[in-house]
TrEMBL record:
Protein name, entry field: VWA domain-containing protein
SMART domains on file: VWA (SM00327)
Keyword Hydrolase belongs to the record: no
InterPro entries named among the record's database cross-references: VWF_A (IPR002035), vWFA_dom_sf (IPR036465)
Domain VWFA per the UniProt entry, residue ranges: 62-257
Coiled coil, from the record: 342-369
Length: 405
């Protein structure tokens, strides 16, 4: 026991194994201690990386955004809408074992008086999904109304309701933004935050307003309890989109990219997918270049909706679909002919994505130069996107991801 105390391992969870030569203890952190029998008792410590190597198809990233939609939060909602694609770009920089993650995003709203008081003014807007157009659509459908903001309740519901990844070392995080005290409501925020981190979900708190007020309102303590970051933003700060000479070609390439999607399913579903993609392009407004950059990456995927993405993951879908579930251009064709058309479209899409990625890289470089040459931002001019960026890179690396520029 004294040996373990000297090694600082007394409090580690351990498993004990008795062998012919002594006692071995293996901690949950991957540290092995062997105590040999005999006159000279020794302890051997073998450390292994706590981050197990990823061996699956795509490493998991699950992110849930909890937005206060009470009366004073119109600015916050607008920032979320305008900066969604910039936030997603932070994840596009990450890889694990050379593989881009499968990003799923969920949205909850809380503190809105239109929501039932019996449910603590909480609503799950979107479950964890890789359909980023659905996330964007949901953000643009939000509206604010006065209410009571219960942070402990909404964190608890997010942990309970969502199908969080069970992959070892997945990056799982909650980002909760609001401006009222963190300790309001019937659910103790401390137990909610401890439950979250106990399930491997980090909680980052984003207080809209004065830093000291956020500390007094327990936003900092909530983040500490769940091993997240405490951040402050000005929810009314206007989001600035830098215009560049590369935007025109990016917009043109995005339009060409949209022509490569082969939506399938019932007629209403096909129309819905196509309409929503075009609508979210429109909603992106001056941020369309950021959205187009994401559409050129593997984070933007439409498996189960688009035949190209689905075929590349599971070619058998071509044989399983009924003729009426196919897009018009694939009807009346043999299975082999369908596959050839899909492969041609996949090749065309890959070419456009490559051009789009190159144009986006040039755009980012130009925008960065413009930012460096501009006047420094005023103190406190921090937006929701800035807060996400501040936390994501560091936390992804802690979850075993490599994060590039």
């Amino acid at each position: 026991m004294k040996i373990l105390q000297k090694l600082g391992l007394l409090l580690l969870p351990t498993c004990l194994f008795w062998g012919g030569t002594g006692l071995s203890l293996v901690s949950a952190q991957g540290v092995k201690i062997t105590i040999e029998t005999g006159s000279n008792t020794t302890a051997t410590v073998t450390s292994s990386d706590a981050k197990e190597p990823f061996t699956g198809q795509r490493p998991a990233v699950d992110v849930t955004i909890l937005l206060d939609t009470s009366n004073s939060m119109d600015g916050l909602i607008n920032q979320a809408r305008n900066q969604l694609w910039n936030i997603v770009q932070e994840f596009a920089k990450a890889k694990k074992s050379g593989k881009t993650p499968l990003l799923r995003v969920s949205i909850f709203e809380y503190g809105n008086s239109r929501l039932p008081a019996s449910e603590d003014y909480i609503r799950q807007v979107v479950p964890l999904t890789d359909d980023l157009d659905k996330v964007s659509e949901a953000l643009f459908a939000l509206s604010t109304s006065g209410g009571d903001e219960y942070c402990g309740s909404v964190i608890t519901e997010a942990i309970k309701r969502l199908d969080w990844s069970s992959e070892p070392n997945a990056y799982k995080a909650i980002f909760i933004a609001g401006n009222e005290p963190f300790d309001q409501g019937p659910v103790d925020y401390r137990s909610a935050c401890k439950k979250a981190i106990g399930d491997g979900v980090v909680v980052n708190t984003i207080h809209c307003g004065n830093y000291d007020q956020g500390v007094r309102g327990k936003w900092q303590e909530g983040a500490k309890l769940a091993e997240g970051k405490f951040l402050n933003i000005n929810q009314d700060e206007k989001v600035v989109h830098i215009k560049t000479p590369h935007d025109k070609i990016i917009i043109e390439l995005n339009a060409e990219l949209n022509k490569t999607y082969l939506w399938y399913g019932s007629k209403s579903k096909r129309q819905s997918y196509a309409t929503n993609q075009a609508m979210q392009d429109s909603n992106a407004g001056r941020g369309l270049s950021s959205r187009a950059a994401i559409k050129s990456s593997s984070l933007y995927r439409n498996v189960g909706r688009d035949l190209v993405d689905t075929y590349l993951e599971d070619a058998s879908v071509v044989q399983e679909l009924k003729d009426e579930e196919l897009p018009e251009e694939l009807r009346g064709l043999s299975v082999q002919e369908r596959m050839s058309r899909i492969e041609e479209m996949a090749k065309r899409r890959a070419e456009i994505k490559q051009q789009l990625a190159e144009a986006s890289k040039k755009r980012d470089a130009f925008a960065l130069e413009q930012q460096r040459a501009a006047q420094p931002a005023a103190p406190g001019a921090i937006t929701l996107g800035d807060a996400f960026s501040d936390a994501i890179s560091e936390q992804l690396q802690e979850s075993g991801f490599e994060v590039g520029e």
